[in-house]
Amino acid sequence: MKFTGTFLAAAAALAVGGSAFAGTLDDVKARGQLICGVTTGLAGFAAPDDKGEWQGFDVDVCRAVAAGVFGDPKKVKFVPTTGQSRFPALQSGEVDMLARNTTWTFDRDVKLGFEFTGINFYDGQGFIVRKSLGIKSALELDGASVCVGTGSTTELNLGDFFTANNMSYTPVVYVTADEIRAGYLANRCDAYTTDRSGLAAQRSVFPNPDDHVVLPEVISKEPLGPLVRHGDHQWGDVVRWSLNVMIIAEEKGLTSANVDEKKASTNDPEVKRLLGVEGEYGARLGLSNEWAYNIIKTVGNYAETYERNIGPSTQIALERGVNALWTNGGILYAPPFR
Amino acid sequence: MAVNAQDAAPKAALLYDAKFRSILYQIITLVLLIGFIAFLATNTISNLEKRGIATGFEFLKHPAGFGVPFSLIEYSEASSYGRAFVVSVLNTLFVSACGIVLATILGFILGVARLSPNWIIARIATVYVEVIRNVPLLLQILFWYVGVLSALPTLRESINIGDSIFLNNRGFYTPLPIAEPGFMAIPIAFLIGIIATSLVSRWAKKRQEATGEQFPVFLTGTGLIIGLPVLAAIVTGFPWTMEYPVLKGFNFRGGFVLIPEFAALLFALTLYTAAFIGEIVRAGIQAVSHGQTEAAHALGIRPRPTMRLVIIPQAMRVIVPPLTSQYLNLTKNSSLAAAVGYPDLVHMFTGTVLNQTGQALECIGMMMLVYLTISLSISAFMNWYNARIALVER
Predict the structure, then answer these.
(1) 3 state SS of A225
(2) Is 60 exceeded by the pLDDT of residue A203?
(3) For residue A259, which phi and psi values (nearest 5 degrees)?
(4) How far is it, in rounded angstroms, from Cα A92 to Cα A12?
(5) DSSP A332
(6) Which of A143, A162, A179 has its CB closest to that of B250?
(7) How many CB atoms lie within 10 A of CB A11?
(8) Which of the four pLDDT bands, split at 50, 70 and 90, describes residue A22?
(9) Could you tell me the pLDDT band of residue A12, with boundaries at 50, 70 and 90?
């Protein structure tokens, strides 16, 4: 099987690697590093900071997995992928997982051979326009030129929305988020459409963010989450439960600051199981029993990473909305840890 | 041992036979190659199956669902992926064909300009060639795109020529003739004009060779090719209506539009390739020795026919082969369209379609086949042309 892998890697055009199929966890451990596919740069979700370190909400999912596997969130190599290159990169085994604003759809789950391992952000597609256009609703966009990224569900939703409402439009299709922003700012299009989180992120880096307004219509469901190759269930479980740990930690009030104290003092059996005080939960995943503790200690719970990267106090300024815990009126909900 | 050696002797002779050995090596190589390909194919198929990745070309019939900014044929969100494929191939061909024509014209002007006795013209051409040739094409495409977008006025401040032609940073809008019944007479007349011109030119050549009398072929040809369609239009009573672009809401509607992405790509491809063609033309002309010109003059041939009948035919033999590879380069370079979002084959088909369907092998395979076909066709045509103008040795 290894031989097959090398052979096919040589025939790179085939984009199918044999060795990367099963045992991703073993590969990652042997490599000593997780390789995680992220966006080419979307403020708040995944972008390098001024020191060249990747930061963001999606980046933290990668860091959580690395923390779970190695106990060290720094053991990640980030591979920037475009909307076009992300799927071949994962299919071919170039990356171990994707965490890059990817919408969970039937086709991607079933036809492309992927497995979505949860939802870290519930999003929906919207439009941003210049305030000077004076429009209040996306239904007034008949005849507009719309900037959109290629190879995304966004492109299809855009077509569906205008067809369903009997309106015409001209798409202007770019590859990277930076190109789309440049095109929109150069007045090439009247509106820019993508997931509303993406719009908020992009607006935060516009020269005059206040000159632009996000229209109220949400034209699609966009559940964004990490994904892995189909068929490697052990690895799928590791990624799925790394995300769940962050959500459960928020539910249980565990933060990076208080997890040590809670670990010593808690009487909650679920917290004891989670932090490895009781049971062999980590070992069943092929990890140490401290794995969840490491994630919470080094990356933090869901709320912490949300507030740090995209919350109301940041430039992106996204309210929790539907992404609040189910106990707080949102739909964020993790299965019980037992 | 001795007995064995004797037995083996005739076989050893066969093995040392040069012809047998070369055939054997070829068979072994072939078997290994086929085995390697079969290995890759079965592995690919089994890996695809194992991961549940869909295969086959069934997806071409499914509705595409996405819009296209620029299309030469009717296309909507309800069209199939197959139609989207055709749209993208036509877009690639369109920008390549326009680029080849313009680059050839500009390239010939540059080549002649570099040889100009006028110092300023020759230096300008040299500077142009050296600058353009040495800046990466991708950079030039981006430069023109940013240039086009920021130099042109916005929609509301469009440059307006007679309320029918508009120019802004969304595109170049012109009226579009919509055919009515009887319109087909015009292209047919055009075709007849071309055929008649070629017949006239053949007849004129024969007559000149026989009698030495000349005939104004160029004027007659122009008259036939332009005159006949105009006549047809008058006879059929101008069977078309013009659809004018009108500013409605956010954009101009109706008419024909060239998008800025196309303009940027075309500018960059033309200017870049023209620099190379200029050098090829200069080399071609310089390859014809000055003695040829002097000989022609000595025979009493005037300067213009000397250029047309003596210098250029000989220069073309040097020019055509490298020109072919420039045409191929231009066509392949058009795939950089993705950088500015012109919906060519690479950007639209392997970008959008590949991502929507996830069928990488099929999409990349189709794309490679298209480029191969285009390149081989250009190559075949240029080889035919080269053979036609080649020196016929007697």
Answers:
(1) coil
(2) yes
(3) -65, -35
(4) 9
(5) B
(6) A143
(7) 15
(8) low
(9) very low
Distance CA A195, CA A185 (A): 18
Higher pLDDT pick, A108 / B10: A108
> Are B96 and B346 spatial neighbours (Cβ–Cβ below 8 Å)?
no
Return the structure tokens found at A218. 């949400």
Does residue B96 surpass a pLDDT of 90? yes
Phi-psi region of A231 (alpha: psi -120 to 50; beta: other; left: phi over 0): left
Report the residue of chain A nearest B364, measured CA to CA.
A13
Across the range B260-277, mean pLDDT stands at: 94
In this prediction, residue A10 carries a pLDDT of 39
Structural domains of chain A ordered from first start: 2-122+224-328 (3.40.190.10), 125-220 (3.40.190.10)
Domain boundaries, chain B: 88-136+260-389
Residue B179's identity, in one-letter code, is A
Counting every residue written for chain B, the total comes to 394
- Cβ of A144 within 8 Å of Cβ of B250? The answer is yes
What is the CATH code for B88-136+260-389? 1.10.3720.10
Tell me what the mean pLDDT of segment A307-326 comes to.
Answer: 90
Residue A273 has pLDDT above 90, yes or no: yes
For B186-244, write each residue's pLDDT tens digit: 888 889 989 999 999 899 888 888 888 888 888 888 888 888 888 888 888 777 888 88
CA angle A58–A62–A65, rounded 5-degree value? 140
Give the pLDDT mean for A214-237: 92
In angstroms, what CA-CA distances link A1 with A6, A7, B43, B306? 9, 10, 11, 71
DSSP A67-107: HHHHS-TT-EEEEE--TTTHHHHHHTTSSSEE-SS-B--HH
Element (H, E) at B161: strand B159-161
User: DSSP for A219-275?
Assistant: -S-EEE--EEETT-HHHHHHHHHHHHHHHHHHHTT--TTTHHHHHHH---HHHHHHT
User: Closest chain B residue to A5 measured between Cα atoms?
Assistant: B43
CB within 8 Å: A171 and B154: no
Chain A residues in contact with B149 (beta carbon < 8 A): 183, 186-188
Of A336, A304, A229, A325, which Cα lies nearest the Cα of A73?
Answer: A304
Instruction: Tell me the torsion sign for CA atoms A252, A257, A259, A265.
Output: negative
Strand partners, B5: none
What does the pLDDT look like over A139-185, one tens digit per residue? 999 989 999 988 778 888 999 999 999 998 989 998 888 889 988 99
pLDDT at A23: 87
Q: What is the per-residue pLDDT for A20? A: 42
> Three-state SS for A194?
strand
What size, in residues, is chain A? Answer: 338
Least confident of B241-245, B281-285, B321-325: B241-245
Task: Please give the C-alpha separations between residue B52 and each of A110, A231, B166, B300, B314, in angstroms, as whole numbers.
Answer: 7, 9, 51, 78, 61
The dihedral over CA atoms of B144, B146, B151, B155, expressed in degrees to the nearest 10, equals: 120
Q: Flag if A171 and B155 touch (Cβ within 8 Å).
A: no
The shortest C-alpha distance from B371 to chain A (Å) reads 16
Does the distance separating the beta carbons of A230 and B52 come in below 8 Å? yes
Q: Where would I find the H helices in A32-56? A: none
